TrEMBL record:
Family: Belongs to the RecA family. RadA subfamily.
Source organism per UniProt: Roseinatronobacter bogoriensis subsp. barguzinensis
Domain notes: The middle region has homology to RecA with ATPase motifs including the RadA KNRFG motif, while the C-terminus is homologous to Lon protease.
UniProt KW keywords: ATP-binding, DNA damage, DNA repair, DNA-binding, Hydrolase, Metal-binding, Nucleotide-binding, Stress response, Zinc, Zinc-finger
Function: DNA-dependent ATPase involved in processing of recombination intermediates, plays a role in repairing DNA breaks. Stimulates the branch migration of RecA-mediated strand transfer reactions, allowing the 3' invading strand to extend heteroduplex DNA faster. Binds ssDNA in the presence of ADP but not other nucleotides, has ATPase activity that is stimulated by ssDNA and various branched DNA structures, but inhibited by SSB. Does not have RecA's homology-searching function. Plays a role in repairing double-strand DNA breaks, probably involving stabilizing or processing branched DNA or blocked replication forks.
Protein name: DNA repair protein RadA
PROSITE patterns listed in its UniProt record: RECA_2
Motif (RadA KNRFG motif): 250-254
Keyword Nucleotide-binding set for record: yes
Superkingdom of the organism of origin: Bacteria
Gene Ontology molecular functions: ATP binding; ATP-dependent DNA damage sensor activity; damaged DNA binding; hydrolase activity; zinc ion binding
Ranges where the RecA family profile domain occurs: 64-213
GO biological process: recombinational repair
Binding site for ATP: G93, D94, P95, G96, I97, G98, K99, S100
Length: 452
């Protein structure tokens, strides 16, 4: 058999390369390429005969997995109703966003609700974690604390203690002596995560792995961990804003796309049970360029303020600056406004922002973005009690979106009395809300802004 060639991979993005290079061609990171040592370099012998595996039908009834609630409602919601025994969870996020704070609070909450919990920090000394716990008022929680990076020692300890839940902060600092590359490299992260996840399944221990995210938004070392675990949560937020969103992007035991909202305070993370009210609390009198979007995050309706500023540009290529929204989406909407409604934005700088530092991913925000742009350009403020939602197609037509009723109910709850929305397939009447159904964007331009 031919000798297998050495393989190299980038520790930043996980791209594989045939030879070493100083710079990864895939992500542009410098000095991030390391040689991948095969975990088991067994000879390529022909596979012998195995035993037959037991097969069953889909109809067999299975009890729902046992869950433990932490009594942190936002966390339980994102987990799909509590922590499932023997599950593996990955919590990813930018460095400094608050992952360690969140998990220390979570582990204390689970300990208070009766689970035996362990928190292993590979980044901070035990004294540092204790100081943080004291600051968060959690010093009395029954959590076993360890500061260690050697996975062999951690696994032996776990084997003896067998807690219900263990938090590993972070997976990038863990190392296995059986793998030669440095901690944080793809092979180490992959091997360490594999060991921890298989331990979790074997011994019925829930494991939470903390993973730092690289610039490109991937969990460093790279997506290899994502497919090994049952649940992937991202902790996100804008620096300088106090809001933090815990978002489920994958969940084998619950709905994905569910979010939990937290606020970073001087005494740790506080849960935000009514995010709409908070996100809109900074809103002043109606101003041109400000539109309230009635969105849905996971299963929960959420109102956010979308802001636009349009100003004459001195640049050859005008600026398009977007915070909290997809910039490709903005370009599409600008193109539709120009091509279908005859409203050009050439020669104008466009700035867009979602108030509160949160991110809006839904296509239903299209109409709110378009209204904010029109309102800023025409210098006409929408009435203060109006919410907007709807998807815009390239033809300029408005497409209905899911959960219209929930969006309207949330708007009504927060004192709004008018909604601009696409034509509905099935009529929805919410008392107290006047629904302005629009077939296309040109109609919105004409009726709402009296232009076009
Ligand atoms: P941390 O949990 O250490 O982030 P990560 O583990 O994701 O790297 O959070 C660090 C930030 O949180 C730090 O900038 C300070 C801030 N913070 C507060 O504002 N209040 C608090 O009570 C705590 C513990 C941290
Ligand atoms: Mg940390």
């Amino acid at each position: 058999m031919a000798k297998s060639l050495p393989q190299f991979s980038c520790t930043a993005c996980g791209a594989t390369h045939r030879k070493w290079a100083g710079r990864c061609e895939a992500c542009g990171a410098w000095n991030s390429i390391v040689e991948d040592k095969p975990v088991s370099a067994g000879p390529g012998t022909r596979l012998g005969k195995g035993r037959n595996i037991a097969l069953s039908t889909l109809a067999e009834s299975e009890a729902p997995p046992p869950r433990s609630a932490s009594n942190m409602a936002e966390l339980d919601r994102v987990l799909g109703g509590g922590l499932v025994a023997a599950s593996a969870i990955l919590v990813g996020g930018d460095p400094g966003i608050g992952k360690s704070t969140l998990l220390l609070q979570a582990v204390a909450a689970f300990a208070n609700s009766g689970l035996s919990c362990m928190y292993i920090s590979g980044e901070e000394a035990a004294a540092q974690v204790r100081l943080r716990a004291a600051r968060l008022g959690l010093a009395q929680a029954k959590v076993q604390l360890g500061a260690e990076t050697s996975l062999r020692d951690i696994l032996s300890t776990l084997d003896t203690e067998c807690p219900d839940l263990v938090v590993i902060d972070s997976i990038q600092t863990m190392w296995l002596d059986t793998v030669e590359s440095a901690p944080g490299s793809v092979s180490q992260v992959r091997a360490a995560a594999h060991e921890l996840v298989s331990f979790a399944k074997r011994r019925g221990v829930s494991v939470v792995l903390v993973g730092h995210v690289t610039k490109e938004g991937q969990i460093a070392g790279p997506r290899v961990v994502e497919h090994m675990v049952d649940t992937v949560l991202y902790f996100e937020g804008e620096r300088g804003h106090q809001f933090r969103i815990l978002r489920a992007v994958k969940n084998r035991f619950g709905p994905a796309d569910e979010i939990g909202v937290f606020e970073m305070t001087g005494a740790g993370l506080a849960e935000v049970s009514n995010p709409s009210a908070l996100f809109l609390s900074e809103r002043g009198t109606p101003a041109p360029g400000s539109v309230v979007f009635a969105g849905i995050e996971g299963t929960r309706p959420m109102l956010t303020e979308i802001q636009a500023l349009v100003a004459p540009s001195t640049l050859g290529t005008p600026r398009r600056t977007v915070v909290g929204l997809d910039s490709a989406r903005l370009s599409t909407i600008l193109a539709v406004l120009e091509a279908r409604c005859g409203i050009p934005f050439a020669g104008m700088d466009v700035f867009m922002n979602v108030a509160g530092g949160i991110r809006v991913h839904e296509p239903a925000a299209d109409l709110a973005i378009a209204c904010a742009l029109l309102s800023a350009r025409e210098d006409i403020a929408l009435p203060a009690e109006t919410v907007v939602f709807g998807e815009i197609s390239l033809s300029g037509a408005l497409r209905p979106v899911s959960q219209t009723e929930n969006r309207l109910k949330e708007a009504q709850k927060l004192g709004f009395c008018e909604a601009i929305a696409p034509r509905l397939l099935k009529p929805a009447t919410i008392p107290g809300i006047v629904l302005k159904e629009m077939p296309d964007l040109a109609e919105v331009v004409g009726q709402v802004f009296g232009a076009g």
